[in-house]
Specification:
The complex is a heterodimer of chains A (113) and B (111). Chain A has strands at 4-7, 10-13, 18-25, 31-37, 44-50, 53-57, 64-70, 73-79, 87-94, 103-104, 108-112. With 113 residues, chain A is mainly β. The chains are: A mainly beta (113), B mainly beta (111).
C-alpha cells in the first residue's frame, strides 16, 4: 500500500460545528504532516508529527487541533472555524531518514459557512 | 512563510514542445523536490535532488540545481496534454524533514 488516504473528500460545516479530518497511511512512514492550501496558492505547513509526537506547530490557531493516535493515523479536529478557514487540507507522510519525498493524500475540500 | 519563488507563474505551450520552470530559494538546503498537482487535489512527488547533486533525470523530466545561485529548474521534454497541471518546487532544510513550497507554475499544454 503506497497511498495516503484522507476522509472525507469534501466537508461543509457551520462556524459552530465540530468536525474531524482523518488521514491514514500504511507505508511505515514515521513523519506525518498537515498542510493547508488556498486556491492558486502553495501548500502551507500547519503541523508535523514525528514518531507520533508533535514536533512542529506553525503558529496555527487553537481552533485546529491535531492528534496522532498511532503511527498510521493522523486526525485534525476542527472547532469554531471561520469562513476564511475554507481551503484544501492536505495530509502527507514521509519516510526517515531525511531526503525522502512526501506522499500526499488527495485532500479534504473544506467549506465553512 | 514561502521559501521559494517560481517563474513563470503561468506557462502555455503546444503539445510536443519543452516546458521549463524555474525556482529560486533563499537559504541553504538539504535537498529540493518538485511536485505536480492536478486540479487542486493531492500533490505527486516527481523528483528529488540533493544539495551535492547538479542534475537529475527521470523519464521526460530533467532537474538542475545551482546551489551557488540558490536556484533550480525543471524541464519537461516533449510535453503532452496530460502534463497540464501546477508544478511546485519545495525545499527541505534538513531540520525536522520539513518541506516549504514555492509559489508554483501553472502549466497548460494545448493539444
Amino acid at each position: 500500500d503506497t497511498e495516503v488516504t484522507q476522509t472525507p473528500k469534501h466537508l461543509v460545516m457551520g462556524m459552530t460545528n465540530k468536525k474531524s479530518l482523518k488521514c491514514e497511511q500504511h507505508m511505515g512512514h514515521r513523519a506525518m504532516y498537515w498542510y493547508k492550501q488556498k486556491a492558486k496558492k502553495p501548500p502551507e505547513l500547519m503541523f508535523v508529527y514525528s514518531y507520533e509526537k508533535l514536533s512542529i506547530n506553525e503558529s496555527v490557531p487553537s481552533r485546529f487541533s491535531p492528534e496522532c493516535p498511532n503511527s498510521s493515523l493522523l486526525n485534525l479536529h476542527l472547532h469554531a472555524l471561520q469562513p476564511e478557514d475554507s481551503a484544501l487540507y492536505l495530509c502527507a507522510s514521509s519516510g526517515q531518514p531525511d531526503g525522502y519525498g512526501y506522499t500526499f493524500g488527495s485532500g479534504t475540500r473544506l467549506t465553512v459557512v | 512563510s514561502q521559501q521559494g519563488e517560481e517563474d513563470p507563474q503561468a506557462l502555455s505551450i503546444q503539445e510536443g514542445e519543452n516546458a521549463t520552470m524555474n525556482c529560486s530559494y533563499k537559504t541553504s538546503i538539504n535537498n529540493l523536490q518538485w511536485y505536480r498537482q492536478n486540479s487542486g487535489r493531492g500533490l505527486v512527488h516527481l523528483i528529488l535532488i540533493r544539495s551535492n547533486e547538479r542534475e537529475k533525470h527521470s523519464g521526460r523530466l530533467r532537474v538542475t540545481l545551482d546551489t551557488s545561485k540558490k536556484s533550480s529548474s525543471l524541464l519537461i521534454t516533449a510535453s503532452r496534454a496530460a502534463d497540464t497541471a501546477s508544478y511546485f518546487c519545495a525545499t527541505d532544510l534538513g531540520a525536522g524533514n520539513m518541506l516549504t513550497f514555492g509559489g508554483g507554475t501553472r502549466l497548460m499544454v494545448k493539444p
